[in-house]
Amino acid sequence: MSLQGKLDSFKKQQAKCQSTLSSIAASKAANQKQKQNPAPAAASPVPAIKFSNDTERLQQINGIRKAPVGAQMKRVIELLYETRQAFTPEQINEACYVDMRANKDVFENMRKNPKVKFDGERFSYKSKHDVKDKSQLLYLIRKFPEGIAVIDLKDSYPAVMEDLQGLKAAGQIWLLSNFDSQEDIAYPNDPRVPIKVDDDLKQLFRGIELPRDMLDIERDLQKNGMKPATNTAKRRSAAQMQGITPKAKPKAKKTEISKRTKLTNAHLPELFQKLKDS
């Protein structure tokens, strides 16, 4: 091969090597660019919509809202009584699931209920006596010198029974049980009028035999210008209307003197005349 032919062959090899090097450089540049700007990842699949796993609570709400009007009212009144707070119909719905906006019968009956106060916007519990603490309770009891039934005070506020016992322990009130109905009556004990009773008078008082029937006691009180704290006739009439028959009180057994009787009053011979005759 001539010198010119060898030179042409060398130039072709040089061009081929240059082309290979350029291809390698271009491939490296493409790889670096791909690393700097990676291809966007495939979008994650949207999870399938599942039914709520709160089925039990939803069933409870549905059962409450389908319950009779009286049952729904009872649920609301219990909420108001336990919390002693004022609630809007929406707050009542959140607290006990009674939808008063949707059920007009519940709304109207609650608005007219004597145990519920409605100010046009909120519902709250209404006790028989509006007292909130021990000082107000004592002030109320002192307004009833003839006594006030504890059952009428029980729903005033949550700690009322503890406060009654505290006032009793402090000597500011008396808590006495009714002879007939066994209900407690609260009486004021005015500390400004300390009274000391002689033992003889106490003994005389305890020796007085009271009538067995509460009706007779109430009549005697009325004759002496005192108002009884109870109304036995009204209570018994209501019990009869409800079909409740009063229990008959056992009669006292009459004891008679026999030959086996131990004679302790031998100095009163007229007591034993019947025994001698027999």
Automatic annotation (TrEMBL):
<dbReference type="Pfam" id="PF18121">
    <property type="entry name" value="TFA2_Winged_2"/>
</dbReference>
<keyword id="KW-0238">DNA-binding</keyword>
<dbReference type="Pfam" id="PF02186">
    <property type="entry name" value="TFIIE_beta"/>
</dbReference>
<comment type="subunit">
    <text>Tetramer of two alpha and two beta chains.</text>
</comment>
<protein>
    <recommendedName>
        <fullName>Transcription initiation factor IIE subunit beta</fullName>
    </recommendedName>
</protein>
<comment type="function">
    <text>Recruits TFIIH to the initiation complex and stimulates the RNA polymerase II C-terminal domain kinase and DNA-dependent ATPase activities of TFIIH. Both TFIIH and TFIIE are required for promoter clearance by RNA polymerase.</text>
</comment>
<dbReference type="GO" id="GO:0001097">
    <property type="term" value="F:TFIIH-class transcription factor complex binding"/>
</dbReference>
<feature type="region of interest" description="Disordered">
    <location>
        <begin position="227"/>
        <end position="263"/>
    </location>
</feature>
<dbReference type="InterPro" id="IPR016656">
    <property type="entry name" value="TFIIE-bsu"/>
</dbReference>
<comment type="similarity">
    <text>Belongs to the TFIIE beta subunit family.</text>
</comment>
<dbReference type="GO" id="GO:0006367">
    <property type="term" value="P:transcription initiation at RNA polymerase II promoter"/>
</dbReference>
<keyword id="KW-0804">Transcription</keyword>
<feature type="domain" description="TFIIE beta">
    <location>
        <begin position="60"/>
        <end position="132"/>
    </location>
</feature>
<dbReference type="InterPro" id="IPR003166">
    <property type="entry name" value="TFIIE_bsu_DNA-bd"/>
</dbReference>
<keyword id="KW-0805">Transcription regulation</keyword>
<dbReference type="GO" id="GO:0005673">
    <property type="term" value="C:transcription factor TFIIE complex"/>
</dbReference>
<dbReference type="GO" id="GO:0003677">
    <property type="term" value="F:DNA binding"/>
</dbReference>
<keyword id="KW-0539">Nucleus</keyword>
<dbReference type="InterPro" id="IPR040501">
    <property type="entry name" value="TFA2_Winged_2"/>
</dbReference>
<feature type="region of interest" description="Disordered">
    <location>
        <begin position="26"/>
        <end position="46"/>
    </location>
</feature>
